[in-house]
Amino acid sequence: MGVVMDDGRLSGIVRTTPSTADTRDSAAPHISFAEGDVGANEYSSNIQIAELNALNAAIAVIRWKKLFGVYRDARQEVYAGYSIASGEMVIESAL
């Protein structure tokens, strides 16, 4: 999750990227391995954004259930990103 301060309000992206043996190469560019001070990312400052954590968790559980056949998976997404400011969802699929 990347959350930044923009004109005194929070903005950013909630993203979910599953990584399986079949999708590892396409997932890798979306996964950050940054440690320590990550600059302007407000998420690392212990900001209270439970609703964004809950949204991210729900998207991840739905994706996991698609991977295991509980839900139909028409797009086989390898990345889902929700823009906090615009409310838009961007999906990249393996197809």
Care to give the gist of this entry?
By secondary structure, this protein is α+β, with helices and mostly antiparallel strands. It has helices spanning 24-27, 50-67, and strands spanning 2-6, 9-16, 77-83, 89-93. A four-stranded antiparallel β-sheet has the order 1-2-3-4, covered by helices on one side.
Poorly predicted runs are none
Q: pLDDT average, as an integer? A: 81
What can be said about the biggest beta sheet? 4 strands, antiparallel
**How large a portion of the residues is in β-strands, by DSSP E?**
25-35%
Major sheet strand order: 1-2-3-4
Helix content: 10-25%
Radius of gyration: 14 Å
* Sequence of secondary-structure elements: EEHHEE
- What is the overall silhouette? elongated
The counted number of beta strands is 4
Class per helix and strand makeup: alpha+beta
Distance between the termini: 25 Å
Number of helices: 2
Describe this structure in words.
The protein has helices at 24-27, 50-67; strands at 2-6, 9-16, 77-83, 89-93. The chain is α+β, with helices and mostly antiparallel strands. A four-stranded antiparallel β-sheet has the order 1-2-3-4, with helices on one face. The mean pLDDT is 81.
